[in-house]
Amino acid sequence: MNMKVFAAELVGTLTLVLFGCGAAVLAGEFVGQLGIAFAFGLAIVAMAYGIGSISGCHVNPAVSFGVFIAGRMTGKMMLTYWLAQFVGATIGAAILFLIASGKAGYDIDVNGLGQNGWGAGYLGEYSLLAALVFEVVATFLFVVVILGSTHAAAPTAMAGLSIGLTLTAIHILGIQVTGVSVNPARSFGPALFVGGHAIEQLWLFLIAPLVGAGLAGMKARIGFLEKDAA
């Protein structure tokens, strides 16, 4: 196991959960949906330049899966990324819970921890089908941008910005639908602490992002994300 890569992905995913979910839990009433969307996007921008040279800053099992399907990493390395990402998300959620519970009146059953979901009682109360379609399509588009932005022919110095802004746009669109996952680890960490309904619905946020990322990886693998040779 490459410990530098493991540490980078752990810290990166921890940061994404702490900043993104933290903005929703600790500051949502002040910054609103747009502020939460930018918190997720800016966390990715920051980590892209902070750990990108070490691990590529996947901080998302779906991204690593898409990269694997595209033929840009081995299955063994993907599993290292996955382990680091799930551990990092869990630690990030634990830190957020410790901070949030320091406020008088905070109740995880009422205030949550930025967990994902759908249906009655959850944000916009969208249906299961709507949640499934959104997560598959949004992850597909997100990974298309990532694979395109990090391609050898792309101006990779701007990759972190393009990827972060794409995640911001996805959150602006989809927070009311599912809270936006597009990342199984990001969903796993908060759900582990919230339990109950969040755990019951976790399956969608583990499977749908992998489906979307796999489709994006296949497009890259067969050359649809590469320009024709001159």
UniProtKB/TrEMBL annotation:
| Oxidoreductase is among the record's keywords | no
Query: What is a single molecular function from GO for this protein?
Result: water channel activity
Where in the cell? Cell membrane
Q: Which InterPro entries match?
A: Aquaporin-like, Aquaporin_transptr, MIP, MIP_CS
Annotated Pfam families:
MIP
Keyword list, A-Z? Cell membrane, Membrane, Transmembrane, Transmembrane helix, Transport
Q: Name one GO cellular component term.
A: plasma membrane
Main location class: membrane
Q: How does it sit in the membrane?
A: Multi-pass membrane protein
Q: Transmembrane region positions?
A: 37-70, 82-106, 126-147, 159-182, 202-218
User: Is Cell wall biogenesis/degradation given among the entry's keywords?
Assistant: no
Please give the PANTHER family that the UniProt record associates with this protein.
Answer: AQUAPORIN TRANSPORTER, MIP17260P
What's this protein's family per the entry?
Answer: Belongs to the MIP/aquaporin (TC 1.A.8) family.
Q: Know the name of this protein?
A: Aquaporin Z
Native source organism of the sequence: Hyphomonas johnsonii MHS-2
